Amino acid sequence: MSTQFDQIADKVLAGTPASEADALAVLQAPDFELMSIVAAAGRLRREHFGNTVKVNYLVNLKSGLCPENCNYCSQARGSEADILKYSYLSKDDAIAQAGAGLKGGASRVCMVSSGRGPSNKDIDKVVEMTEAIKDEYEGVEVCACLGLLKDGQAERLKAAGVDAYNHNINTAESNHDNIVQTHTYADRVDTIGKAKSAGLSPCSGLIAGLGESDEQLVEALFALKALESDSIPVNFLMPFDGTPYENTWELSPQRCLKILAMARFVCPDKEIRIAGGREMHLRSLQGQALHVANSIFLGDYLTSTGQDARDDLEMIRDNGFVILGQENAFNDGTFDEVFNAPRGGHAHAAATTTPCGSSAGSACGDGCGGCTALNPEAKAAEAAEAVDPHKPVIRRRGAGTEVPANA
């Protein structure tokens, strides 16, 4: 029997775009229709992306120290979140961090820096890093996310080999001033325009759970469609302690899945990426979300931990998908060492991780001073953070630390 959502999918496949009313119908559908929504949206996903999942990897080049007051952000001015704070990584450190993700299955590295926007010297650093990464890893895509761009900066990034530029609108224009006051919605749209004009692929998405209405979620998705965003990261608010949104808990797994499905109906041929907060909010529905979205981040996020990288790869495999660019990786032994290694011994709020944060699941050797298996203080700190599953676990590994990355 054809459902309302099958009919929307039929219409979209026939070339008629989904309407705002269609998008609202998805968001406001009762939970018992969730699998019908996923099945219908999944038809659009398979039409444009088959059974592939694009794997992306974040490198936080500079953490914290941001002058902007984005209320949701652990790195913002006024945030008291106990996150890692450091200035720009060296070129060698950035390459090493990027390499961890690429060896773990990622095909795109997202180079991110906190701050209002890059200085020309910052652009020099990212240009040098990009050129080095491109030289070392054939075929890798580089996406830069450096804040508001000035004239000429996007062109320099493009000339260096940067493929895409991320700058999220984060929420509907009608809700923007409620979440940040140090820059405008128009500022964000201007940067997306600068990136597009320079030939960079625009990457822009949203954060759900910021007090927005259903109508504002729809408004944001249609704005992203109008901006012609090639990839749309869908983040779910992570309520960091020490920010204005601490203890904010508006999302359920079912609602998150409906938001992703709505994005697929509205932007059927665009990369829909399940981004920050997926472990916390989708929980056991992460695998179902892959039948709607076609892209994820591997491992950790900017200031918080993600689930173990091996769990990410297992989730892709177990749901019948393959990694884009490594279509035979699950069958040719590429990840045998990852999948067959013993599990590590501790857990955080999202999922079990290995003692040293590696995807292999084996304890590290002597000399890994930051490893929680060998560092009682680090282990106690992680255990304390993991008590409440409604709170993000702060990233203490990877970029800016001596501990191996979760990749």
UniProtKB/TrEMBL annotation:
Its cofactor is [4Fe-4S] cluster; [2Fe-2S] cluster. Keywords: 2Fe-2S, 4Fe-4S, Biotin biosynthesis, Iron, Iron-sulfur, Metal-binding, S-adenosyl-L-methionine, Transferase. [4Fe-4S] cluster binds at residues 66, 70, 73. It holds the Pfam family BATS. InterPro entries: Aldolase_TIM, BATS_dom, Biotin_synth/BioAB, Elp3/MiaA/NifB-like_rSAM, rSAM, rSAM_sf. [2Fe-2S] cluster binds at residues 110, 143, 203, 273. Its EC number is 2.8.1.6. PROSITE patterns: RADICAL_SAM. Residues 51-275 form the Radical SAM core domain. It catalyses: (4R,5S)-dethiobiotin + (sulfur carrier)-SH + 2 reduced [2Fe-2S]-[ferredoxin] + 2 S-adenosyl-L-methionine = (sulfur carrier)-H + biotin + 2 5'-deoxyadenosine + 2 L-methionine + 2 oxidized [2Fe-2S]-[ferredoxin]. Binds 1 [4Fe-4S] cluster. The cluster is coordinated with 3 cysteines and an exchangeable S-adenosyl-L-methionine. Pathway: Cofactor biosynthesis; biotin biosynthesis; biotin from 7,8-diaminononanoate: step 2/2. Transmembrane segments: none annotated. Residues 383-407 are annotated as: Disordered. It is an enzyme of class 2 (transferase). It comes from the Bacteria. NCBIfam families: bioB. Belongs to the radical SAM superfamily. Biotin synthase family. Homodimer. Catalyzes the conversion of dethiobiotin (DTB) to biotin by the insertion of a sulfur atom into dethiobiotin via a radical-based mechanism. This is Biotin synthase.
